[in-house]
Amino acid sequence: MLSLTKLQSGTLIITGTHGTVLRSTNAGQDWQLQATPATDLIRQPVQDPATGILYASSRAGTIIYSRDDGQHWQPLDKFTSASIKSLALDTQQRMLLGGGERLIRIPLLH
Q1: Which superkingdom does the taxonomy of this entry point to (predicted)?
Q2: Are 83 and 59 in contact (CB under 8 A)?
Q3: Domain count of the chain?
Q4: Model pLDDT, residue 79
Q5: Residue 51: what pLDDT?
Q6: Mean pLDDT by 10 residues, the chain (110 residues)
Q7: Which one of 18, 66, 90, 91 is at 20 to 30 Å from 49 when CA atoms are compared?
Q8: How many Cα atoms are found within 13 Å in the side-chain-facing hemisphere of 90?
């Protein structure tokens, strides 16, 4: 397990290695493994408060997103092959990706 995130809905998401995403809708009593297009380490997801869309990055530069509280995950277009170490959302509807000595800005989904 790499991270535990509580979503606006109260759903809990755990991310980890090998593309692992676990999801709980009952405060952690039961967990379901969710399929993702990622195959490596998934870092802590971030939820857009305006749309509810959940974004997560992987060590291999993949960005995945979910529109349904982490049930289903899809890849975004590949923006970099560099390891993404940090993902944040700004107030101008952009995602900021940090990796190594680079900062990448991309627009959020609507």
Answers
A1: Bacteria
A2: yes
A3: 1
A4: 63
A5: 92
A6: 92 96 98 95 92 90 94 84 79 78 76
A7: 18
A8: 10
Within 8 A by CB and 6+ apart from 42, the residues are: 2, 15, 16, 17, 19, 20, 21, 36, 56, 57, 58, 64
* Residue entry with tokens 């959302």: 89
Rg of the chain (C-alpha set): 13
Q: What CATH number has the domain bearing residue 25? A: 2.120.10.30
Supply the range of the domain harboring residue 94: 3-107
pTM: 0.86
Encode 46-80: b = buried (16+ Cβ within 10 Å), e = exposed: bbbeeeebbbbbbbbbbbbbbeebbeebeeeeebb
Record the tokens describing residue 14, joined without a space.
Answer: 């755990």
